[in-house]
From TrEMBL:
Belongs to the DapA family. NanA subfamily. Its main location: cytoplasm. Keywords: Carbohydrate metabolism, Cytoplasm, Lyase, Schiff base. PANTHER family: N-ACETYLNEURAMINATE LYASE (PTHR42849:SF1). The gene is nanA. This is N-acetylneuraminate lyase. It is found in: Cytoplasm. One of its GO terms (molecular function) is N-acetylneuraminate lyase activity. Pfam families: DHDPS (PF00701). Coiled coil: none annotated. GO terms for cellular component: cytosol. Catalyzes the reversible aldol cleavage of N-acetylneuraminic acid (sialic acid; Neu5Ac) to form pyruvate and N-acetylmannosamine (ManNAc) via a Schiff base intermediate. It is an enzyme of class 4 (lyase). It comes from Lactiplantibacillus pentosus.
Length: 292
């Protein structure tokens, strides 16, 4: 039995003016390696607020994370962009830096046809010697790929798996069994246990920046056949995720990180800047779920 993989979705620290804060990014990476003991980081994804960054900022984030991690853990660079030229440039940049894996969100907004989506992935990979995870997140992109469509994308041998952020468990079962050798990482933290039951290889998520030790214990309990314990741990995590969402998840993740000793700055506008109420909510989350 292979150990399930735990990846945190790397946050990007910003100052109040929306400038990236490289020291904050380094501190987050260190915490994920030293305290959370994650297997890897997913860089420049949704949690990294990457769709609000320009190309140079994305490169700075990728480089900073790569330098700080210094080979200690796996790294996945999310390079997907509606600007295909940018996606290709980032794929080359991350590959040249040494990122062992890439990922790209399905192109969104313009209702692209499947043929166009397939061309997008093949174009991104054409000139780089690297592997890629499809980032499938239908709730935000409106793109819901079918099993047959995943099969067509997998005809490109560089496409090695899926970051599956989708509540469709019927599809997950179909895809898992159709592609037993592909890497499938579950993306909804609150749905990890059912995804483990369907034999995903692990998970990538935003809340693992805070909650990785509890999630590791859940995955270990699951692997050991202690489903009762895994359920209890998922239940605590889901109470915590419910509280995070109610308090506005993206800014609150950073506020809770501050209580954990890591200054991750604030989120980038148009996301909400912290209010006193939000700060009080974050403190309560820290005290309820993380304070020893
Ligand atoms: C939309 C979003 O942020 N989804 C998160 C989840 O970790 C999510 O925050 C969590 O399950 C709470 O709903 C991840 O799937 C995204 C992610 O890993 C990333 O791209 O950064």
């Amino acid at each position: 039995m292979t150990k399930k993989l735990l990846y945190a979705a790397q946050m990007t620290a910003f100052d109040k003016d929306g400038n990236i804060n490289l020291d904050g990014i380094r501190a987050l990476v260190r915490y994920n390696i030293d305290v959370n003991k994650v297997d890897g980081l997913y860089v420049c994804g949704s949690t990294g607020e990457a769709f609000m960054l320009n190309t140079d900022e994305k490169k700075q984030v990728m480089k900073t994370v790569y330098d700080e991690a210094n080979g200690a853990i796996d790294l996945v660079a999310q390079v997907g962009s509606l600007n295909l030229k940018e996606a290709k440039e980032l794929a080359k940049y991350a590959t040249d830096l040494g990122y062992p894996k890439l990922s790209a969100v399905t192109p969104f907004y313009y209702n692209f046809t499947f043929e166009q989506i397939k061309n997008y992935y093949n174009e991104i990979l054409k000139d780089v010697d690297n592997k890629l995870l499809i980032y499938s997140i239908p709730a935000l992109t409106g793109v819901a790929l079918t099993t047959d469509q995943f099969a067509e994308l997998f005809e490109n041998p560089k496409i090695i798996g899926i970051k599956y952020t989708n509540a469709d468990f019927y599809l997950l079962e179909r895809v898992r069994n159709a592609f037993p050798d592909k890497l499938i990482l579950s993306g909804f933290d609150e749905m990890l246990l059912p995804a483990l039951a369907l034999n995903v290889d692990g998970c990538i998520g935003s809340t693992y920046n805070l909650n990785a030790p509890r999630v590791r214990a859940e995955m270990d309990a699951f692997e050991a056949g202690d489903i009762e314990k895994a359920r209890e741990l998922q239940h605590i995590s889901n109470d915590m995720i419910t509280d995070l969402i109610a308090n506005d998840i993206y800014p609150t993740l950073k506020l809770v990180m501050k209580h954990l000793g890591v200054d991750a700055g604030v989120v980038k506008k148009p996301m909400s800047q912290p209010t006193p109420e939000m700060e009080a909510g974050a403190k309560a989350i820290y005290e309820k779920y993380f304070k020893n």
